[in-house]
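seq as requested:
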Amino acid sequence: MTFFSCLRKITLFLCLCLSFEKEALAEAQKPVTSPLAANIPSSFADVVEPLLPAVVNISSTTLTRGKADHNQFFDVPYPKGSPLEDLFKDFLDRVQPEGPRNVTALGSGFIIDSKGYIVTNNHVVADADQITVILNDNTELKATLVGRDRRTDIAVLKVKTDKTLPFVEWGNSEKLRAGDWVIAIGNPFGLGGTVTAGIVSHVARNISENLRTSDFIEGYIQTDASINLGNSGGPMFDVGGRVVGVNTSFFSPTGNSVGIGFAIPSEITRKIVDQIIQYGKPRRGWLGVHIQPVTSDIAEGLGLKELKGALVGNVVRGGPAAKGKLQSGDVILKVGTVDIKDEKSLPRIVGNVPVGSQIKVTIWRKGKNFTFPIVVGEYEESEEVAVISSPDSGKDVPKGIEVHGMTLQPLTKDIRQRFDIAKDVEGVLIVDVIQKSSAAEKGLRPSDIIVEIGQSEVKTPQHVLDHLKKAEKAKRKSVLLLIDRDGESRYISLKLSGDAEKQQ
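struct tokens:
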């Protein structure tokens, strides 16, 4: 083989390599694309037509006296105190007369079986003296309230009629993805039978407390399908005509739809509805603990390496957790096999556990993991903890030991009488807190009782000083206090900014 022949072959080989490299580079530089779905419908008419008879308008009437709360005039998407309240207040004050009168709220709902059960939002029928269901053919039926769930904003009604009622079937909201088509049918502004369509904008959306939200809903379905006043309680359908959500609220700076609406997922709604029909109310699991978030300061004080779990601030006497040996200061890490990411997830996870069943609860206590079997109780609305105001601190109190901006006194007989402290409460009383001190910044206040420091009991001001000095010597950035405030326990992480100074 001659030199020139070899050179030609080498040149041809290099050209081929360069060509392949260019093709590979061009392929790698292509933009990300998605195949166009071949089944995008040109019309939703065939889907909607059989569904319309199963969607109803709901009118709830309440007898009121004096000027009506304008939130009762229509199903509004904003709470009291919202800037939108002022926008409509003057107008509604003019059109609503004084004296006793009936105030009507309008909403939507949908029939779920031939027996006449109807699902809607609780806020549509809240405090109603009379509920009227208007069918698609304008037939008006009196409805009775079967039960409601304030936590998820779901209510179940029932009507009686000789007619054969059409009904819809549930879909699976967990299969929804952002970009899926959805259809909303409802009663916006009292117009009735209105169909809107859009896509799922986001799944499992956590929305702000300005809107109707719930600790028991992990995430709402967000959609750009038009949802307005009166749509609440109406169904959100997938393109197969199955209910995947209950339209409940929308966000708007104007009061009208701007394409940001929210629906309660069907997988949550269906469970609540089944329980209401069977028991007249939802049946949720309950541990019997008052919980707090695990902040970075608290995690450091407890020796937790990760910010996770729910801190037990107080254990309800005689409740499931108390019987299961849980204590104040425990951090609940798992319920069964489910990790507790934060304090907001615990009520929802426990709420889904069947009442009366036994579960294993994993906790963090004094640097170690422990697991306790607990028989889950039933959550009752009356078991919610109210916020109790602190007693007046303007009493004449004697001087005591001052540390980190707190003036501390032992719980003597005189102090107990002066501050009305029960005999079974042990600890050290905070009688004064200096403004802008580390104690004030963390929310400590006069009449709080320090029960523990670093999960160790304290009974005298000197105990508090000793614990603080020990923590500072160990170069801890903060120390965890368990305080008693008006009979309720609460954990507070106190920053350590220097040596604890004792003053008389």
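The first strand starts at residue 55 and ends at 64.
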